[in-house]
TrEMBL record:
Residue ranges of domain NADH dehydrogenase subunit 5 C-terminal in the record: 394-573
First-listed, main subcellular location of the protein, grouped into a coarse class: mitochondrion
Alphabetical UniProt keywords: Electron transport, Membrane, Mitochondrion, Mitochondrion inner membrane, NAD, Respiratory chain, Translocase, Transmembrane, Transmembrane helix, Transport, Ubiquinone
Organism: Pseudothericles compressifrons
Membrane topology reported for the UniProt record: Multi-pass membrane protein
This protein's name: NADH-ubiquinone oxidoreductase chain 5
Domain NADH-Ubiquinone oxidoreductase (complex I) chain 5 N-terminal stretches: 42-90
Amino acid sequence: MKLFSICSLSYYFLFMISLGLLIFGVYFTLNDLVYFVELELITLNSSSFVMTLLFDWMSLLFMSFVLFISSLVIYYSTDYMSGESNLNRFIILVLMFVLSMMFLIISPNLVSILLGWDGLGLVSYCLVIYYQNYKSYNAGMLTVMSNRIGDVAILLSIAWMLNHGGWNYIYYYDFFNSSFEMHVIMMLIILAAMTSSAQIPFSSWLPAAMAAPTPVSALVHSSTLVTAGVYLMIRFNPILVSSGFSIFLLIIGCLTMFMAGLGANYEYDLKKIIALSTLSQLGLMMSILSMGFYKLAFFHLLTHALFKALLFMCAGSYIHVLKDFQDIRYMGLLVNYMPFTSICFNVSSLCLCGMPFLSGFYSKDLILEMVGMSWVNILIFFLYFFSTGLTAMYSFRLFYYSMTSNYNYLSSYSFHDDSFYMNSGMLLLMVAAVFGGSMLGWLVFPYPYVVILPIYLKLMTMIVVMVGLYFGYYVFSSLNMNSNNISLYLISSFLGSMWFMPFLSTSFLSFFPLKLGYYSSSIMDYGWLEMMGGQGLYNLFIYFLNYMQNMFDSNFKIYLLSFVMWMFVLFSLYFI
């Protein structure tokens, strides 16, 4: 009962704070307020160390959403982690994770951003390896090593910011335009954002991080770790657009969105499919903010957080009752056994596809309409709309395997969704996912965008979604692929393995250093260095000692004679 009370206390505490921050966020939005709060921590003579906090509509709304989702995740964990003997430790880790994200959101300062960034990286490693086995260890190492690249980039950018006399980057927007330091700092910040948000070529850690418990996945993939890079680029957006690096980030984001959509259509692990859909949406956010529409990216960031947390919660509910099976081929007709979870699951999938009047529609449709109205080439245009169709394809594939195909699990096994805590968390999130998009749209865009498009471009989003649904139905219900076709197998293995990126991030990178270490140790440490170094000197000294010992043992007369000679030399030197 003590552990359950900790969960309940954390849930109510975070939920009430999120409501308060939401009220403040609405007030700040309507009145266009920005507050800088400076806390003087240490003063020594004329030097003072000041911690600056930034409160504006963006940081307050984002904090409200993070706390709302994390409170429901903790409430959900009461049932999902009920068999865990260390539930107390799990809740404390989740709270530390949320606190690090809060620290990052309200920091206009690169030093305090680094503290929150490092906190996210360290606690995410602890949560990924929570189930202690080899798979979790490998996933945790891949996650933490990928994110360390971003830490090093932020550290280097902190060193370069010394040229401007301070680390509050918001003060220096106007001074960055014509300086060489700005280009270096912007490159490092882009690198850090790419590692945290798992853009190409750092994408492989995101599906690997699915080794964490499902409530952690719901928190990480909706509003915390993966969105930190997007939020950082939103804050640096004026410098990004003026520096000229936005074209590079646009191409990277579109390729990430395309790659993740293709990979999700070949995956059978339920959590990895949802993780790849997160990767696709992160690419969408990165690409649209690199075009200068940072408010649109933030809007999609918030709506995506709602339905992606719900999607992971429903997946966790399925996994929980199926005794930790995650393969979608084991599922089928789950709607007959778990109707409420299936309703929430399909509503969140439709939000992901961008179905009208759900939360994903308001942000995704507006993004695609702005792309259609912008000056972009045919490649970017194709990647945007084709990736949207791929989203509908893997969403329908998920629906087909879990809801319509035959029941493939144990024939004598019965299950249901009667968990009060899990259902309550999913219900609240479903209400937020259905109504949150329209309310946020009215709040963030009080004056709507004027989008003037021909009718075929205006309907392009809905056409692409419908075509994607049709192809998903055609491919996964009636098309039987020939598994003996070697070219088809190679194409599917390439597309289904995220373009071989997990191999490139792990074995490819570590093979040559480990091989070099093996050869250097065998040739030097166990070879010449050993022969000429420690063992060689040891053998040489042993040889001389044995020789001298044998000489003294067998020739006592020589020993006495040498003693007399040494005494004669000493006396002669003394009298001289």
